[in-house]
């Protein structure tokens, strides 16, 4: 109890209300540390557990140097919630005038979606010039909690802000996907995670001690903003996009300000985008079968089943009930539920 209290005190002393996000790096050693979820050490900042490396470089750089444009579109998500698929769908939709989905040389046919849509906070200092050189409209991605995005992006105060698309996924599927991805991708970071069990992952996930956690709070903040400002924040549920991908691509296009014309509808552009970006198609691309990201993580690691309910093959009912109860208690009185509305 004493250690948890001291951790909370340390957290209060280093909240964004008293410490500018651009100066996080100097107080990192004082932040609560978690090393049990490989491969990166996590630090608790602003009530979220974030990779130490992101707090050292990414977040400060984004807050001090990044200059958003009014036409920018940001794809936000908690890790392993449908990020790769959303990147593909948004990129293919927003850039279809330059890269028609029918083209044999479409970027998604020879580049991983993570190469087409960069994470804003990942190696920011190394890629800031590349981001600046991208033509408008830019589509970028982030795993940062809403509260840690710069006001120039969210539109706090007098600013208009940018468009943000958020995708959420049911917590049990997120947990299992995160656990399996960690075990597969950690070796690229020099860490052997084969002994990292689903039980260990569950314990940490339930306590919010995972990359970006607590997951339900990450989701809740974006959902609240989507309710408050639906013209600026589009909230998508992964499970619903799976059921009706074409309807959601149309919704995505309208939100991004590039709705489909009657001519495009007649030519089957929407269905062509959905087919191009299907997980099956992407998984079979040569670049995704044999290529790697800049971090050395194999592209194939980002493509698994992408189905709903796969958690049941890796978790017991008792484990599932425990996580469900944690999430239910955390969301009580918020008005939000992970249950699909479709």
TrEMBL record:
UniProt keyword annotations, A-Z: Transferase
Superkingdom field: Eukaryota
Domain Sulfotransferase: from-to ranges: 70-335
Protein EC: 2.8.2.-
Top EC class for this record: transferase
GO molecular function: sulfotransferase activity
Family that this chain belongs to: Belongs to the sulfotransferase 1 family.
PANTHER family hit by this protein: SULFOTRANSFERASE SULT
Protein name: Sulfotransferase
Organism, as annotated: Zea mays
Taxonomic path: Eukaryota, Viridiplantae, Streptophyta, Embryophyta, Tracheophyta
